[in-house]
Amino acid sequence: MANNGSSKNETGIRILPPFIFLSAIVAALVLNWIFPIHVVPDIIQQPLGFLILACGLAPLPWLFGAFRHADTSIDPRKKPTNLITDGAYAKSRNPIYVAMIAIALGIGILNDAIWIIPTIWMAVHYLTRTVIEIEEAFLEAAFGADYVGYKTRVRRWL
Fold first, then answer.
1. Does residue 10 fall inside a structural domain?
2. Distance between CA 104 and CA 120 in Å, rounded?
3. What whole-number distance in Å separates Cα of residue 158 and Cα of residue 56?
């Protein structure tokens, strides 16, 4: 049976970033259930949590649209075909991951789960080692000096 490449893992990335952040959220909520530590004042918990959550969710359609517009896959398991350097990608090399951090943080605040901070930190560390460094190597191999210049001009996060 021929493989049309639609499900082929070309980069070796094993866990998709949304699942890394989902794991951080679940871990924070479980830790909060077992060891509750209430730090967010009730009066600001919901407004602050929803604001940060919205800041993470709002740009996603534009960020996903940038991949469609550039005719390249958003799936980090696939080799990139085009380099995106404009819009939000002119300010951060990983704006979707920044959005995921905001989403996780917003959910943590909404649940008054201070544990979201260490679990996000662990998720970002894991993401950097198991996804971002691989993506960057593929981008550099595919786009050479263009990517190296982009990497020099634009920070990884913010």
1. no
2. 7
3. 14
CB atoms within 10 A of CB 121: 12
Does residue 11 lie in a domain region?
Answer: no
Q: Positive or negative, the Cα torsion across 100, 117, 13, 87? A: positive
Q: What is the pLDDT of residues 90-143, one digit of tens each?
A: 999 999 999 999 999 999 999 999 999 999 999 999 999 999 999 999 999 999
pTM over 0.70: yes
In which domain, by residue range, is 31 found?
A: 19-153
Q: Could you read off the pLDDT of 34-43 as tens digits, one per residue? A: 999 999 999 9
Does residue 14 form part of some domain? no
- Domain assignment present for residue 3? The answer is no
Cα separation of 101 and 104, whole Å?
A: 5
Number of domains in the chain: 1
Q: Which amino acid is at 145?
A: A
